[in-house]
Specification:
By secondary structure, this protein is an alpha+beta fold. About 15% of the residues lie in helices and about 20% in strands.
């Protein structure tokens, strides 16, 4: 609602490509009732975030301690 993120999605993805930043991508939940969850650990490369790689949905990017880098 009123919250405005201090970092854009592209900046967050960029942080996840850095060697000194801990990041993960969680994928799954595409089929109801199916526990096809998986985690990938960073650092990632820029190609990771192309739609062919992850798809358009059913994934989330987690970047730890973003406050240290903003």
């Amino acid at each position: 609602p009123r919250f405005q993120s201090p970092i854009s999605p592209d900046e967050l993805a960029g942080l996840s490509c850095a060697d000194d930043v801990e990041s993960n991508i969680v994928t799954g939940g595409k089929t109801p009732g199916n526990s096809d969850w998986a985690v990938r650990h960073g650092p990632f490369d820029e190609g990771t975030f192309e739609e062919e790689e992850l798809g358009g949905s059913h994934w989330t990017l987690l970047v730890n301690e973003v406050n240290r880098y903003v």
